[in-house]
Amino acid sequence: MARLVEREDVAVKPRVGVGISAENGGVESFAEAAGRAAVALDARPDLACAFAAPANLERAAQGLAAIHERLRPKAVVGCGAQGVAGERREVETGGVAVWAASFPGAEVVPFRLEARVARRHEREAGGEAAARGGLVVVGMPDLEGADAVIMLADPYSFPLEPLLTEFSERNPGVPVIGGIASGGPGPAALLEGREPVAGGAVGAVLRGVEVRPLVSQGARPIGPEMAITAAEGNVIHELASRPALERLRQAIAELEPTERALAAEGLLVGIVVDPNKPDYDRGDFLIRGLIGADEETGAVTVGAGVRLGQTVRMQVRDAESAHDDLVHALGRQVAALGRPPAGALLFTCNGRGSHMFGTPGHDAETVADAFVGAPTAGFFCAGEIGPVGGRNYVHGFTATLAVFPG
Q1: How many percent of the chain have pLDDT more than 70?
Q2: How many domains does the chain have?
Q3: Structure letter (DSSP) for residue 389
Q4: What is the reported pLDDT for 242?
Q5: Quick one: which of 59, 65, 182, 278 has the fewest CB in 10 Å?
């Protein structure tokens, strides 16, 4: 979680403005969204984030120029998006969203990362190159004293998972929040400064800014908690000293009929990342899929590495569970703050929206109802980035937010 919640030296009250254009008008859509964002600001923004559908990225450099002309931001990052969200609405295919914020007295440092094949001496040295499967990342920012990192990554050219692991190990407690570009490959998959970026990752390091991450994984727990008693890598051999597959089948058989029906449609596993709690709530589990099962050995394979002694619990995801989980997470955030925040960045999965909820606008409206008056904008991601249990992960089907208290 963010280290800065109790920091006495942070007295920053951000001013946030957002703008949405539902059109695919290219430069004109960038200009419209930036102009709307400028209306709410009374100072030059320290950071602007831009998200644009492929049709609007054909002239990305001119679109960025329009943002600079209307907002004069000190830093700009952004990416291609299947669709955008904000101002209580979602444009699932198309549009441009611009989110801009001034952080008085803070430091915002943009960065651009590139992954390349490690040279021979780098491979022989091991370390970072080996940890990323023979790749090295160029342009790593200095995270000393960072309060949070906003990151946007290209899904085709960047080893995001190992980098997030490294971030968490080297900078414990610093949340990385963002999303994976969903606008398709191309020369403008990412945006930084005044230029489109073909691949890699872009983002901004924030210092002196209070940021609270929120990760709603859209699932709810069912059945009992079970301890992993034998495991290797991402394979669970035993749960509660019995073959994992046998134990899961028994737990499913003991469910209520409605929960058993949901489990039959798609069973997930929640893994407790931080064991230092007496009880586990739904936000304490890292949600991952069941990849496979071995009938002979009774082992099950899950979509994350596991360790002996970790607690797991079965999870299910449907529209009702996803709605309840988001409402619950937003409510906890407002209760902790005591008032709505100054604004928020929203990174929602492109599998949500009308695909999950039947009608468009669900996440944008739900956030707006909870964060009354807080300008919020973002995009539909090909994967969302955020912390669970103090470590940063890539998620799917989540609504993840960077929340900026006022």
Answers
A1: 92
A2: 2
A3: T
A4: 97
A5: 278
